[in-house]
Every structure is written in structure tokens, then in C-alpha cells.
Amino acid sequence: MVARTGLYAFLAANAAAVAVLFVQGGFAANALIVLGRFAGLYGALFMAFQLLLVARLPWLDRRLGMDRLTSWHRWTGFGVLWTLLAHVVLITFGYAQLSSLDPLNQLLDLAETIEGVLRALVAFALLLVIGGVSARAARRRLAYETWHFIHLYTYVAVVLAFTHQVAVGTSFTSSSWGTAYWYTLWGAALGAVFAGRLGLPLWRNLRHRLRVTAVVPESDHVVSVYVTGRDLDRLPARAGQFFLWRFLTRDRWWQANPFSLSAAPDGRSLRLTVKTAGDGTAALRRIEPGTRVFAEGPYGAFTAMHRTRPDALLIAGGVGVTPIRALLEELSGHCVVLYRVTADRDAVLHDELRDLAAAKGAELHLVTGPAVPDRLAPAELARLVPDLTGRDVFLCGPPPMMNAVLGSLRELGVPAPQIHFERFSLAG
């Protein structure tokens, strides 16, 4: 709540500052140009806010979770596109009113005669392409690596847009404190990206020097990878979190995949457990012990940090059991674990869960059967866990299952602060 309120307050304070700068910059010859400049300023503010959301700063990530930051990033992206589109259209038509040119020729004239306008148009075109490939329909058809590579052009667009703002923005030319404000805002946003996306991962990997120690098949389609390194007791990882893993082999060093920890960090080693879902995950079985690892993270708010009750209900679906198994190891108080799978053979790490539950005095229920009928419908949840509303609920699994269970929890009256889940989506 503190982090969310802080982000809202940050955006509101900067929105007010931009409004003041806009008024101090004076008004143009007609209403269209005035509105166009207004939209451009808020487009710039939204772009800076976007950078903060994708910076993967640990303080924000631990409190909000990457899925929520990604959701806000998506909606802020729409704000960037619409405000910049309004900026381009309104400015073009506004200047066209003052000249004898039609809007298209007016836009070309602005690009040819005013410094920075051509760069701004290139930036806008890049953002349109990035927005197009980020639409759900297009995103499903692209490999993560392809989508991520295209997304990197966002930083090119940001730099081009900033140079346009420096060249012709009224906030830069109208007052010295306006100039200082925009340099500070952009410097802080880009600095956050540099620190969170480059500086911190490099520093942690140089410090911990991670490498694979063992690769253990759990079943025909599931494998666990054990990783060790130096000073792992100083790595701020918690049960329920995940890393972006790069295994530095000749054919995989450029691929980064998000995998949760499947055991609570003990200061000596880390373990991830992965289900085969393509060539990349299948290749994990062939990784040799001693392979160097570059890991970004830990990421995620799916931890015991946000507990509100002494007892907990852990609900896992399929390979979503990996962070649930790690959480069970760390959590105190009485725990009930519901593990939802289609058939017994799909219950990854079930033996470990059973032994761990017995050692901790927890209840473990293996819920099997097809997706329909829903085996975790409200009546069944209430039967298995009569004191459900008095527990924290941690949920991880396939999206359809998670959506169904979240609906059941709401129907049973479980307060929202007691429900903890994360969809492990990535921004930028």
C-alpha cells in the first residue's frame, strides 16, 4: 500500500508541476497549438513514468510485484501513445491554420524547418511499432526474445523524444527552473533504468559468481537445476520469488527465462524446477555442472513479506507448485496446501511436499481431475478449508485456474489484502 500510494503521489505531484510549467510557458497563437503542447508535455511525463515502471527497482518490485508493475506499464503505454498522437495531430493542424499548407505538407514543413521535429516523428513511429507488437494478439505470435529485442527500441525513442523536447519545448526555453525540472526528471528515470536493469544485476553476478552444480530430472518433463555461488547468504532472495536466468552456454547465453525458486533460499544454493514447454526449457536437461549462470533478480512480491494472518492456505496448480513448495518451507503457522493437477502423475515435487507438510504439521490435499467440473469451486474450498476467511491465501498456477480460484475466493468473502498471487509477467 505504501509503495502504491507513493507511486500515485509521485505521478500526481509531477502532473501538477507540468501544469505549472505549461502555464508559465505562455500560450500560443491558437487553441490547437496550445492543446498540442499540453498533450506533448504529458506525453513526456508518461514516458518518464514508464521508465520508472520498467526499471525493476527492488524496493518497488518487492512491494508491488512485477505483474502489477507490468499492468501499469501497459496502461501507461496507452497513455503515451494517445497523448503523443494528440500532440502530433493538434500541433500539425494548429500550424496549418496559420499557413496556407494542408496538414500533411505542414507536417513535412515542420520536420524540415524546426530542429528536433524529425527526430520526434521517428520516435513516434518507433513507439507505434512497439505498441503494435505489444498488443495481445501480436504478442502471442512472437517469441519472448523477439518481442524483447523490439521493445529495446523504446530507449531509442525516449532519447529522440528528449532531444526534441530540449530543442523546442517551451518548458526548456521559458524558465531555468523548468529546464532543471525536466533534466532532473529524465535523469532520475534513466538513472533508475540503468541501476535496476544493468548496474545491480552486473554487481550481483560479479559478487556471487553463480554456476550450476547439478541437474536432476524430476519426471519425464520436469527438471530441477541446482545453482551455487559465493556469499549467497547476502543475496536478498526469499521463497516465492523468481529470477531471470541465463545459462552461459554457446547456444543459450542470449536467452533469459523467468523461473521461480522451488526451494527456500538457504544461503548455500538456489534451486529452480522447470517443466518442458519448448526447445529452451528442454535444453536445461543437457546443461553441464559447472556452467556459469547470469541471474537477474530476485523479483516478485509473492512472499511472506505481505502476510496479514498467522495461518495460511497455499493453492498450487501444475508446475505453479514451485514457489508454493518454497513458501511452505519458509512460512510459520498452520498451513493448508491444495495441489491441483489433472492426474497423480502430474504432481511435480509431490513427495517433497508430503514430507515437508508432515515435518511442519501442515495439511496437504492433492486435488485431481479434469478442469471441468471445477474441483476448487467455492463449495469445495469451503469444505476443504472451513476457516478459509481467517487465513492468508497464496495462489500460483495456470491463468485459467487462477482466475477461477480468485472468483471462488471473492465469492467466499476472503478479504482482498489476504489474497496473494503473481502472474510472473515481464515488462520491457
UniProtKB/TrEMBL annotation:
Q: Which controlled-vocabulary keywords does the entry list?
A: 2Fe-2S, FAD, Flavoprotein, Iron, Iron-sulfur, Membrane, Metal-binding, Oxidoreductase, Transmembrane, Transmembrane helix
Q: Which InterPro entries match?
A: FAD-bd_8, FAD-bd_FR_type, Fe3_Rdtase_TM_dom, FNR_nucleotide-bd, MRET, OxRdtase_FAD/NAD-bd, Riboflavin_synthase-like_b-brl
Q: Which PROSITE patterns match?
A: FAD_FR
Residue stretches making up the FAD-binding FR-type domain = 205-305
Q: Which Gene3D superfamilies match?
A: Nucleotide-binding domain of ferredoxin-NADP reductase (FNR) module, Translation factors
Q: What subcellular locations does the record give?
A: Membrane
Q: Identify this protein by name.
A: Ferredoxin reductase family protein
Membrane-traversing stretches? 7-27, 33-54, 75-96, 116-138, 150-168, 180-200
Required co-factor(s) are: FAD
Specify the species. Answer: Streptomyces ziwulingensis
Alphabetized SUPFAM superfamilies for the sequence: Ferredoxin reductase-like, C-terminal NADP-linked domain, Riboflavin synthase domain-like
The organism that produces this protein has a lineage beginning with: Bacteria, Bacillati, Actinomycetota, Actinomycetes, Kitasatosporales
Give the bilayer topology: Multi-pass membrane protein
